[in-house]
Amino acid sequence: MLEARLQTGALLKKVLEAIKELITDANFDCSDNGIALQAMDNSHVALVALLLRHDGFEPYRCDRSLALGVNLVSLSKVLRCAGNDDIITLKADDTADVLSLTFENTDNDRISEYELKLMDIDSEHLGIPDTTYEAVVQMSSAEFARICKDLQVLSDSVQIDVTKEGVKFGAKGELGSGAVTLKQNGNVDKEEEATLIELQQNVSLNFSLKYLVNFTKATPLASRVSLSMSSEVPLLVEYKMEAGYIRYYLAPKIGE
Amino acid sequence: TAPQVSIKSFFHTV
Q: Could you give the ipTM of this predicted complex?
């Protein structure tokens, strides 16, 4: 059986907000390592990989690996019934056809209990090879969200160019063009806002902005984001959390 | 605009 108690229930609410528009149904794979999820979006252009490690829960108990098939829109609706400061406990039996959720307020005088029906999901699991990327950009997650949103005004896609000087996001469309360049600035006072670049080789890649904007729904989960790129392989956008991560992979747009 | 490629062409099915 699974029993996982999350002191900061708001984290789970934010995680659901970060994935529910990209994916409809997914298996939460529970093991002694924690709770993981891997799923492609409906058009098979993007892949989401989520890990909530066991040490992020107190207590965490999972005797036997379990795949909990969940409709993410339904789960997100149930989670809206939890207060932001509530402690959330997830429970499921080994033969479970429901996921039990308990929300306790901080005064411990209001306890709400919900049960969400589970479903059988026959999802494809993809093997993601360890990749050494040609360019890794670490930057403020809020800045990344702003750039994607701003450039969406101009075009459906963005060209990302990374050199040792900086990273340039450019978009061209019917109404004109625009570009935002962030210079590498590791010495700034505010570490959280620094743009850091690890570069083996310059890269120039095109991606759909619609997906990138969708990925930025994870912004409330982390102040930093990393963009890992190599020519003609999927972009990895990673938001690291205290005990886990959310990774989005996006296939590039490849030249005509 | 350049065509969008499926993510499945980059990762193998387990």
A: 0.88
